[in-house]
C-alpha cells in the first residue's frame, strides 16, 4: 500500500511570493515517489497547486455547512471545487483555539458528504500523558468526533485518523516509534468497534523528519505521515517522500 504523506504548511509562508518559490522548489523535487503526496497549504495559496500533476491537494480546515452567511469560512464543497481531496480536521492547533469534538464531528460529516477524505487529528497533551490519560483522551476524541457517522458514510472514501501527540508537535521531540505503535494499535482497537478497519488509515504526526520518517511506516506500521515543519523545507520533504 502507498503511504500517504501529507504536508501541512499551517499558516506558512508569509507571502504569495514566498509561497510561489516554495511550491516551485518542492514540486520540482518530489517527482519520483510512489507515495501519495498531499499538499495542504493555507487556503489563500491553494490556487498555486491547481492543475499540477503528481500529488493531491488538501485543506487545513473547513466549515460544516455547504454555503451561507458564515463570514470568513470556507466549505468542504468549495474546497472540493478548487481541487482538494483531503481536509485536515480537529488539529490540536485548532482545538487550542476552541474547536470542540462536536464541531469536528459536523465537519467530518460534511467532508464525507462532499466526497472528500477527512484527516481527523487526535492526540494527548503532555499533562494528559503525565497523568497516564493518553488512551482515555484518544478514545474520547475518536468517539466524540465520529459520533453518529455511519459505516455507510465511509463506504466510498474511508477516513484517515492522524495520531499527533501535542507534545511532539513542533518540539523536535517525536514520539518513540515503539510507543507510537502502541498508540496506533489502541486507535485501531477503538475504531474497530465502529467501522471495518479496511476503511481506516492511521497516520503519525509530530516532529517527523527525513531521519525518523521511515520508522513510523516500516516499524510502527502507520499508513502515512502528517508533516509540519519538515514540509516547509524542500530538501527535507523530498527526502521523506522518496523513502517510500
Ligand atoms: P511538526 O511536524 O512541525 O511537528 O508538525 C506536525 C503537525 O502539526 C502536522 O499537522
UniProtKB/TrEMBL annotation:
Location in or out of the cell: Cytoplasm
Regions annotated as coiled coil: none
Binding site residues for substrate: 8-10, 170, 207, 228-229
Keyword Transit peptide part of the UniProt annotation: no
Catalysed reactions, semicolon-separated: D-glyceraldehyde 3-phosphate = dihydroxyacetone phosphate
Main subcellular location: cytoplasm
Organism domain of life: Bacteria
GO terms assigned for molecular function: triose-phosphate isomerase activity
GO cellular component, one term: cytosol
Active site: 91, 164
Leader sequence segment: none
Pathway note: Carbohydrate degradation; glycolysis; D-glyceraldehyde 3-phosphate from glycerone phosphate: step 1/1; Carbohydrate biosynthesis; gluconeogenesis
Swiss-Prot/TrEMBL keywords: Cytoplasm, Gluconeogenesis, Glycolysis, Isomerase
EC number: 5.3.1.1
InterPro entries: Aldolase_TIM, TIM_sf, TrioseP_Isoase_bac/euk, Triosephosphate_isomerase, Triosephosphate_isomerase_AS
Protein's UniProt keywords contain Isomerase: yes
GO biological process: gluconeogenesis; glyceraldehyde-3-phosphate biosynthetic process; glycerol catabolic process; glycolytic process
NCBIfam families tied to this protein: tim (TIGR00419)
PANTHER family, alphabetized: TRIOSEPHOSPHATE ISOMERASE
Oligomer and partners: Homodimer.
Family membership: Belongs to the triosephosphate isomerase family.
Protein name per its UniProtKB record: Triosephosphate isomerase
GN (gene name): tpiA
Amino acid at each position: 500500500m502507498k503511504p500517504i504523506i501529507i504536508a501541512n504548511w499551517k499558516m506558512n509562508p508569509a507571502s504569495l511570493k514566498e509561497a510561489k518559490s516554495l511550491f516551485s522548489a518542492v514540486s520540482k523535487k518530489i517527482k519520483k515517489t510512489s507515495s501519495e503526496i498531499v499538499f495542504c497549504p493555507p487556503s489563500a495559496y491553494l490556487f498555486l497547486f491547481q492543475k499540477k500533476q503528481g500529488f493531491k491537494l488538501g485543506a487545513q480546515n473547513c466549515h460544516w455547512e455547504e454555503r451561507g452567511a458564515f463570514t470568513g469560512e470556507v466549505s468542504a464543497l468549495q474546497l472540493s471545487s478548487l481541487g482538494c481531496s483531503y481536509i485536515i480536521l480537529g488539529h490540536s492547533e485548532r482545538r487550542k483555539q476552541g474547536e470542540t469534538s462536536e464541531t469536528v464531528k459536523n465537519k467530518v460529516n460534511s467532508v464525507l458528504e462532499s466526497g472528500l477524505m477527512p484527516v481527523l487529528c487526535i492526540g494527548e497533551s503532555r499533562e494528559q500523558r503525565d497523568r497516564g490519560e493518553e488512551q482515555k483522551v484518544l478514545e474520547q476524541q475518536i468517539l466524540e468526533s465520529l459520533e453518529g457517522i455511519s459505516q455507510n458514510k465511509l463506504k466510498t472514501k474511508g477516513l484517515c485518523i492522524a495520531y499527533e501527540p501535542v507534545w511532539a508537535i513542533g518540539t523536535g521531540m517525536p514520539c518513540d516509534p515503539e510507543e507510537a505503535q502502541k498508540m496506533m494499535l489502541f486507535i485501531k482497537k477503538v475504531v474497530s468497534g465502529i467501522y471495518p478497519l479496511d476503511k481506516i488509515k492511521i497516520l503519525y504526526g509530530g516532529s517527523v523528519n527525513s531521519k525518523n520518517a521511515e520508522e513510523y511506516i516500516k516499524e510502527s506500521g502507520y499508513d502515512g505521515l502528517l508533516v509540519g515543519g519538515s514540509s516547509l523545507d524542500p530538501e527535507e520533504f523530498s527526502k521523506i517522500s522518496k523513502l517510500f
